[in-house]
Design a protein that fits this description.
The structure is a homodimer. By secondary structure, chain A is mostly helical. The first copy, chain A, folds into two domains: 62 residues, Arc Repressor Mutant, subunit A (Orthogonal Bundle), CATH 1.10.10; 33 residues, no CATH class. Helix content of chain A is 63%, strand content 11%. Chain A contains six helices and three strands. Chain A has a three-stranded antiparallel sheet. In chain A, strand 2 and strand 3 form a beta hairpin. The structure holds a DNA duplex.
Chain lengths: 130, 130
DNA sequence: ACTCAACGTTTACGGCCGTAAACAATTAGA
DNA sequence: TCTAATTGTTTACGGCCGTAAACGTTGAGT
């Protein structure tokens, strides 16, 4: 019995709206619009479009409380990241996580402490590995 | 003095053409078209379009040798993967490799041997870290 | 010299995405 | 009750992408 369907696809611009909602929920339209207007240099109309599209694809919902509309995310950050990761992993590495790690390790410089952290994560994974 | 510009953006469909060329170079148009026709169920025209677009964006080049056209990649697989990785890393994790690793480790199951392999890679990185 | 096949080039078209204007509805306050 | 502000909805438009038809060129063989 499958309950959770795949989260809807959230585009990069739309994700800016979601990021706000993942930080604090709910937000009013004014809050969302004014913040993104600054940060992203978007017009109000543009932001309204994204809110509308996100609503249509059921990534957010809103309630009206008097004159204010309150926005809530319906897709969690984790669902979003997970879906994006999966899709990238499949596209680029045919699902082979090992390959992905190897490539990133080869390309990106990691500080010693980052490496230590990863080693600890791997150790934990080895034991409790869920 | 900058010599290498960023590689052009190669879309998913286009990458199917590139994959062939990364396996064996050069290839003739017939080879490319007939292979993708089967594998991808694309029409000849579609494949020609991709060849053309890839050429326009300088991801491939071709030579005419008599009646045959020979295709060569201009973008290497490594450049392609590297650019895609960078772009994904920036988009999703703001460039923080550590975060990316943590998320993938959390989500994907790794076999014990894969974990061992990664640990070795990390060890090597720690010492010789290029 | 002419024709057919092998290729490249141009044009097209619907869908998604970033961007935004214009229109509609509703409600708090004058 | 009228108005202005707040917010949602509809429509638009150019660019990229997947998909493909139509057209043009050139060279090998007749």
């Amino acid at each position: 019995m499958k309950i959770l369907n795949n989260p809807p696809h959230i585009t990069e611009a739309e994700s800016e709206v979601m990021k706000l909602l993942w930080q604090k929920e709910p937000l009013t339209a004014i809050e969302i619009i004014s913040k993104l207007k600054d940060q992203m240099d978007w017009s109000d109309q543009t932001i309204k479009t994204f809110l509308n599209r996100l609503h249509k694809k059921k990534a957010i919902r809103f309630e009206k409380s008097g004159r204010n509309y309150l926005y809530y995310p319906l897709v969690t950050y984790d669902e979003y990241v997970k879906a994006a990761n999966r899709s990238f992993l499949d596209r680029m590495y045919n699902g082979a996580v090992g390959m992905l790690f190897a490539k990133f390790l080869e390309e990106e410089k990691l500080s010693e402490s980052e490496i230590d952290q990863l080693q600890q994560l791997l150790e934990k994974k080895k034991k409790g590995g869920s």
